[in-house]
Amino acid sequence: MPNYEHPQLAFGPWDMASSYIWAFVPVSFKYLYSIHWTVFSTGNPPPFPVVAKTWRTTDPSSTSSSSTSSSSSSSSSSSSSSSSIIHSLPGWLAWHVVQQWMGVEEQSSSQVRARAFTDQHEALANWTRGAANDEGCTRKERSRLSRGGRQQAKRASSKLQGSFQLPTRPDQTRPDLARYSMDVDDLFGDSENVNLQTINVAPPVKGLARRIDDLRSSGCCQRIAWSKNGCVAYITPDGYSVKLKVFFRDPATAKWDLGKDVPLEFPQGHDVYPLVHVSWSNLGNDLAVVDEAGRAMVFSCAMALDRLQFVPVELAHPESEADAVVGMHWLAILPYEQKSHIAWSAVRDGAKWKWNIRSHKFHDAHHPIDSKASFIYLKRHGELRLRFQQNDSAWQESSAQLGPMVSTKEPFTHAAFASNNGKNQTKSLLLAAYDVNRRLHLYRIETTWNIPADKQPNRVTPFEKPTIQVVLIAMEDNTSPIDLTAADLSNGTEPQGTAAAQLTHLNFLPITPEHGDGSLPTIQAIFARPPNMIACDQMSPQETLHSVIVKWTVLQSQQNQVHPSLDQVTSKKKGVNSVSGRTIFLLQRQPDFTLHAVVLAFYPIWYNMLLAFCYSDGTLEFRKRSTMEIIMPDGNTNTVTSLLQAGYVFSHAEPSLHVAFSPNHCIAVCMQQEGGIKLRPMEYQNGTITDEEDPRHSAALAALVLQSSSAAHQYYSSDDIFAILGPLSEKRKQDFIALLFDGLDVNIDCGIDDMCNNHLILLGRAPFFVKTLSAMHILGLEGIVSRSLTSKIAWIVLNIKYVTQILTTIARIHNQKSPLESNSLRPDGVPQLIGVCRWMMHFMAYILDELFSLGREIEDIPPESLTREVLEQKIHELNKPAVLILLSAFPRFMMKSWAHPLAWVKRSADTLTHSSTPVPAPEIRRIYTPLHVALNELPFEWRWFEMLVVETHNLVRGTFKKAGLSDSQRNAVERDLLVGKIPDVLFPVAKRLVTDRLWNSAQPGGCLADKLDVGRLMFFDTTWLGFTESKRARLWHQSHVVDVCQKMVIRGRGKTVYPGIAGPLQGQGQGHSQGQGQSQNGDRNDGLRSVHGAGLGAVGGLEEPGKKARLRQCVRCGECMEDVVQGLPGYSLTHASWLMGVAKHCNCGNSWMLADDKKGAK
């Protein structure tokens, strides 16, 4: 280390105390202070020889060099001494000396500068060159020093030549200024061009100190959270309200963004204390809000993501007003989080990808009743509370205390929970709690659920509250981070000059499902460490505020309960080993891990195998839990494991105090201190994935599908994935769909005989099939009704699936008591079927009209010229999917199944509306009239459509049998049909549908043109279905709203209203029927006509004055439905309950959000 002499000349006489203090001042500060003091006291800078004398090194050669330079007065000696001096300076200090010297030199008088310039200018050049070539300087310091020195030399040289004249020395003539017109690059001797990347240093984020203080004070201070189904909840800056924002796709612009703020409604008396924490349940249906006093409030989703209702809780005992919550954990929900298929990776296999998806069963602590939520939280003074749902979904609470009452002097500040989910372990919870004395406590929590053994699914009687037992199993006193720069590392104490590190995050990471990683339950503590103000090593850069990770793994072992020496007792009957041992828990500390900045938010993601860090400098970083390795794009185009590895990154942005991630962690929502909300999506760093030649793009596409598959298996929304997808070519869209079929393993082959029931599986619980169709739909949706061919096919299939479910479910309910042939549709089932049956009838007309339109387009093409390619091109050109819908197995099976229940419904409506039929009451005829109208307004007999479907069904099956295709080959054929391709094996059937079946009267059974009035069919309006692209269709949908679930026009001219079944039968109704012949007169744009008189409300004429019905809008496709809830005027309790059950999601399988009425639709 350099030895700096006491500057008697510069500082004057010093006493013993000042000398003692001076000995402990860092050498770099002594040196700089000496230069500044000399300038301050004399007005002139010290010459280089004087500066050189004050700096000595312990190296003998350096000492000799310094001594020689101090005694020499020539320019050459000064130059050489200066060069040796800078070798003993750190790079950063050398640069500061150069800046200080040049700055002081410019402020000196002209005479002093002229006298010193000749001797010192060359010394300055040698000095800077020596520093730049010093091995102790880093490449960055060397470049900075040389670059800065050049600028200073140019400025000094120009001022010297332009501002004054050098005086003539007595022993020499006036110097020639030309000799000083040297090249600055030669002066500093740069032989290479150093290209360094510009470092963007973000300014400190506003409110950082306050945020760190909040993190230090409590483990529950998350002010923004993003649910797994796509809703953002955040606490406002004033701390007294929570607002919701739904992530949705704007139908008008096709852009994904957060919706408008929707305030959460708090009950009266719950707005006294500031709110500090928000936390969504694992599936996103419930939100917990915690205030400063430790009161936890629960809000549950009510049919729309942005409508949460406060749920009252039966508390174990009154709430305290001075006991904050320090840790919270949501328990698993059965059966959704018990067993999962994990999408590990995708491996390229030629032109295809193979998916590594394996199932795993989790043993996490959970609520024992399916679909019921629960969470547990710890309060500051040791009270543990378990809040859970009863059979009727009402919330209750149980509590326990962590041993004796925790002293007020030792309260907890942070807590974290994890399931003790190892093999052969009970489904217990582990609790890690950190107190103000910097001690870490480990508890085991055993919960006994008092659920009856019979587990009746329809049981509504509440069960007894569960009991909680808590046991302290381990404790750690030494929790502070170890300073690796301290001289003594054995005691782990903080070095002198460093303030105590403060805990900001405490997490409990359970065992991961990854095989062979050897993971154990791990307690992770993140400490914020302030910079060390007393540097121990001048060669080290100055420290900044940063975080340090401290980890402990939880080890379990068996210990004998009796001493081994008892084996020596001869009178014993059993050995020591026969006594069962007890399990002991040990905390084993892992090496500390230092991070580059302060962690403001931390999230364990993807089954706790990845760790997400949000830093104070704006960096978003993902690391592997097992190795702490940063996940970066690695350029591997043959194996993909995540979006990060495939080239999707978070670009640098301004730092934010509060950050939360979307369900698939590809979009971050950032909030500043003043409450501003911004989205920060991942970006693909390799351009666009549309390019089909670059293998990196196909790997990125596979990574997107892999993440979509992972989201589907975890019941997460995948809207954020489509938000970062960007524009795709048609070829890339088809590739994405094909990969999604493979990644989700969707089989849409419905067999070639009646033994196969896959069509029933697809009709029932087939969420992956719906997710695939929804992806197909959104990829080709443009605006309100404009869809590509593939998108239109997917949307049609989704609607066919939905209406078939409604029709067959109602028929099955009626068939339970007696066969359909012997009974009629009950009045309470009529409202559910009015819109559905009308949609089915109009859809039949749409399909036949599309067939005739396509047949007319190809009528002039010779039969030998009508090839598969020509027909397929014409279908894409006209965007008419009728042929593909009839050929596709699943929609064909569904349309074939309509015949029997439709005939039953039509017979009931015809019978109960006929004037000669005796009915119990006149009101019954009025109830069935709109249903009768819906089933009889077609311009043809609907049985002709049934015959067409049955004929096509038999032809396709026969073709498959004749070709001898396997199950996988038929599955591939079905996939081709859904993406707009006509397979070669089915081309003969497709050709027949648009030729002979339409026009050939000579064939057996005739043709459709002979059986239908083609003119009436052409002018039959089906615009309201939403499958027609035209200017007129766009204008109609801008001024009308069609309920996508009830299949009715609910806003705009000609809106449909219900016949008021709750009124006439219960003494509440009014209005009269218009008759069956008035549903389709006048304006063809209406599509549906009202069955009530003018002037009645939109929901049966029972709308309350001043109360306006609202709409729900799908967050993905933008379709709407009436916001039907219990008590909505015009809807009976039975009808409202039915709709709330079948319309929890849009037909495309996505969630609802509340929306205002369209401006043009009234």
Automatic annotation (TrEMBL):
Record's compositionally biased regions (Low complexity): 61-81
Residues covered by region (Disordered): 56-81, 134-176, 1061-1090
UniProt keywords, alphabetically: Activator, Nucleus, Transcription, Transcription regulation
Primary location class: nucleus
Classification via InterPro entries: Mediator_Med16, Mediator_Med16_C, Mediator_Med16_N
Recorded superkingdom: Eukaryota
Domain Mediator complex subunit Med16 N-terminal: 316-650
Pfam families for the chain: Med16_C (PF20719), Med16_N (PF11635)
A cellular component annotation (GO) from this entry: mediator complex
Domain Mediator complex subunit 16 C-terminal: start-end pairs: 1010-1153
GO biological process entries: positive regulation of DNA-templated transcription
Compositionally biased tracts (Basic residues): 145-157
Location(s) in or outside the cell: Nucleus
Quaternary structure and interacting proteins, as annotated: Component of the Mediator complex.
Function: Component of the Mediator complex, a coactivator involved in the regulated transcription of nearly all RNA polymerase II-dependent genes. Mediator functions as a bridge to convey information from gene-specific regulatory proteins to the basal RNA polymerase II transcription machinery. Mediator is recruited to promoters by direct interactions with regulatory proteins and serves as a scaffold for the assembly of a functional preinitiation complex with RNA polymerase II and the general transcription factors.
Family listed: Belongs to the Mediator complex subunit 16 family.
Protein known as: Mediator of RNA polymerase II transcription subunit 16
Organism annotation: Leptosphaeria maculans (strain JN3 / isolate v23.1.3 / race Av1-4-5-6-7-8)
Organism lineage: Eukaryota, Fungi, Dikarya, Ascomycota, Pezizomycotina
